[in-house]
Amino acid sequence: MAMINVSILFVVFNVLVVPVYSQTCQGTTAYASCSSNSACGCFPMVTADDFGVCGFLWLTCARLEPCKGTNDYCDQPDHVCVRHTRCRNQPVCYPLQMIDQRVCPPPNNIPVDTTTPMDITHQTTTIETTTPFTETTTVETTTPFTETTMTTTFQTTTTSSASEKPADNICATATWSKQGITVAGNGTQGAAYNRLYYPDGIFIGKNQTVYVADTDNNRVMKWVKNASVGELVAGHGGSGSNSSQLKKPKDIVVDGDETVYVADYGNSRIQKWFRNSFRAATVLSVAYPIGIALDDEETMYVSMTSGSYLFQQRKGASKWESIGNNATQIQFITIDKNGAVIGVNLQYKQVLIKHKNQTKFYYIADGSEEYFLTPSFDPYSAIVDQSGYVYVLERSNNRVTRWGPSAKTGTIIIGGRGSGSAADQVNSPSDISFDDEGNIYIADTNNHRVQKFSIDKSSCN
Ligand SMILES: *[C@@H]1O[C@H](CO)[C@@H](O)[C@H](O)[C@H]1NC(C)=O
Ligand SMILES: *[C@@H]1O[C@H](CO)[C@@H](O)[C@H](O)[C@H]1NC(C)=O
Ligand SMILES: *[C@@H]1O[C@H](CO)[C@@H](O)[C@H](O)[C@H]1NC(C)=O
Ligand SMILES: *[C@@H]1O[C@H](CO)[C@@H](O)[C@H](O)[C@H]1NC(C)=O
Ligand SMILES: *[C@@H]1O[C@H](CO)[C@@H](O)[C@H](O)[C@H]1NC(C)=O
Ligand SMILES: *[C@@H]1O[C@H](CO)[C@@H](O)[C@H](O)[C@H]1NC(C)=O
Fold first, then answer.
1. Is 382 left (phi over 0), alpha (psi -120 to 50) or beta?
2. For 152-179, what is each residue's pLDDT tens digit?
3. Which residue's CA is the closest to the ligand 5 atom numbered 7?
């Protein structure tokens, strides 16, 4: 390949949030050529033995902070820890803007490795342009975001009649036991495999297998039906940021091959754990991810603590796109059986839904006055059944309310009896899910357990 004229790309990001699409350099040595921009080279990753990232080589060394911990993580969410021995013996935190494909485009004759996209959102940042080069090109700052506005229109959902049973086994007249049974953890915090420690997100797999983001144990546990002890599926060696560790995982999702995806909150990344694997690969770097969901077409969704952006990656796609641009404070997210994304806006106390293949979010329950309930409505996480009933987990109210399609008031179906550890109580719960039979599961966070509330099958006859 004839070396094209060096074009050094300086970037000034004026937009608030920019995803970074980096290319990786598999098995290449430090500083090896990896881009059609000859000012870019390969930086080996500290947390991976066999790949690096392709970045701009000439950032001033003084700008680069050493990595933290045992030299393997960065405090700033928009930096990645790499080896850069020309600057320091110790690994350094490299700004992700400088490993963007817009700065370091793939070489013309080498196929792009699209298997490990690393994206990040970051605050408005101006990159200093201290380099030994003169030619300057401004990178276009067009982002792949689709502008999305929320509307106040209510969605209308067809309600099935009580006599016909939807595929999720939940009819309009369904009722649930108010007495929960513990299916994971035993009510006492701890690190033994029969315990949990402030569990946050749950995922119910086939055969009522419960997967738990065991947040303060920095691990993910799997409890098969009737088990009295859980199995460790992700997170080894305590809190940390190497490829076998997690730091305060908040939410999880499991695909049909039992691959577990973890919102690794404290490390600002989404980790992919193959079944029985000791270590994980990073599939997305995003500031403080808090929610993760997967629809039946294996499109993955990731929400952030800040709520600023909601990311989506379709199955097989290499890139993540941002949807729900104004999905302010959407934190925990879930997917219903029809592929709709349900999110909660904590700030405005709204439950929102985005139907499959649409871009708009609609309110389906909110905290305005007409939704009056005592104490006042305080959604944290929500799910929707196939008949359009909304189930809202109200963390501070220690209850679940059920809302008919377009209803302006909800009914308490679980809890509502103050915080506590009795079978009919929960204590600051974080997540809610169904299994295939229509039973409801609650991550009962401050009781360090997962509770199952069985559907009364006769209520749907
Ligand atoms: C964003 O959402 C908030 C609350 O949900 C709303 O008040 C505001 O008007 C929305 N902004 C845009 C640009 O849609
Ligand atoms: C949980 O299990 C531990 C033993 O691992 C036991 O000491 C504790 O009493 C149990 N707690 C409950 C509520 O069963
Ligand atoms: C679910 O249980 C059935 C019957 O016991 C078994 O054949 C199947 O492998 C189980 N599936 C999973 C994912 O555990
Ligand atoms: C779980 O326990 C219930 C009640 O003890 C029993 O009927 C059921 O067969 C058990 N299921 C499995 C998968 O062990
Ligand atoms: C990560 O660190 C933990 C704790 O030091 C260690 O047990 C584990 O082997 C490390 N994993 C890798 C892949 O280095
Ligand atoms: C959504 O879009 C995907 C890809 O374009 C398509 O395959 C699928 O059928 C669509 N689903 C619905 C419900 O429209």
1. beta
2. 333 333 444 445 678 889 999 999 999 9
3. 237
